[in-house]
Amino acid sequence: MHLAAAFLFVLLLSEVHAESGALVLEHPAVYQVEFGFTITSASPLPERVEAWLPYPVDRAGQKVGRIRTSLPPTHHTREPACFYWRIDHPAVSPISASQSFELTVWEKRLDHSRYRARSYNTRSGEYRRYTASSPHIDLSDPWVVGQAETLRVKYSDPLDRARAAYDLVCDHLDYVRIYGFGGSRYAAREGHGECGDYSCLFAALCRKSGIPARPVVGYWATELDEAHVWAEFFLEGVGWIPCDPSQGDLVDRDRFFARLDNMRVSLNHDVDISLPYGTDVKVAPIFQTGVYWIKGGTNVKITPILRAERK
Cα(20)–Cα(49) distance, rounded to whole angstroms? Predict the structure, then answer.
């Protein structure tokens, strides 16, 4: 039983950088996606349930149709792109909320013949944001500091520098399931990690060497129960260029640098996301399956709703 049955259509925030013909979008794929959660509890039920769920927005290579929600959110914000539910003294269990939407995803690749290196506008807000340190993209780590300085001295072209950072991450790390999220310092120190750790270490090397970069948090569109994190770096005059360090390490380096397939749902573009509203939750280290705060309840269980079907 759902707590309520209602629908909401949301105007989406767009972040599209396609400043030159160097970033090529091709071979679109269309998916119908449902994404949400179900919370169950035995009696007595929780006194309060709070839930934060990211929603996708239009970006270069991704177009999102109108989003329909099964339960109207208490609030929604555009930065971060987030639905928030607060339910006091729920009368029934389970409590369920989901969003459904049509998603079009393009393959992306950099046309190297059209690329020309340009200097960064280091005064822009975007440059400052994506070259800054954060808890999971730690620019003070000694390994990152030393390697980034070598990259900066050796490679003047930011594309070459980003490729060298990508190769360095693939060489330094082994893919190991850690069933958690370590971030760049963990990956640099331990020499292994999961996709999020690969992407954070890549972002740290790029940022410290002067290239804006960020993890991309989402899912495989064809297997929505499989979360994934990849990365992007920014080239002035071109836009955000994709890469996937963990897939590059596991499958094929050239295939996953400056090009990306059309089989992903991109939810948000960074880690350590500050969450709006709420009682006690302020920051999500990685904002992917949702964040939940539940007071009370008995044998509470949270089950993600994750479905995708190619049309």
Answer: 46
Q: Is 21 left (phi over 0), alpha (psi -120 to 50) or beta?
A: alpha
State the span(s) of the chain assigned CATH 3.10.620.30: 117-268
The residues near 227 (Cβ < 8 Å, ≥ 6 apart) are 218, 219, 288, 289
Statement: residue 10 has pLDDT above 60? no
233: part of which helix (H) or strand (E)? strand 227-235
The answer to whether residue 213 scores a pLDDT higher than 50 is yes
| pLDDT given for residue 20 in this prediction | 57
Nearest to 81 by CA among 309, 230, 229, 288: 288
The pTM (predicted TM-score) of the whole model is 0.92
Q: Which fold has domain 117-268?
A: C8orf32 fold (3.10.620)
Please state, in angstroms and rounded to a whole number, the distance separating the CA atoms of residues 193 and 181.
Answer: 8
Between CA 264 and CA 223, with CA 177 as vertex, the angle to 5 degrees is 25
Residue written as token pair 């090397």? 205
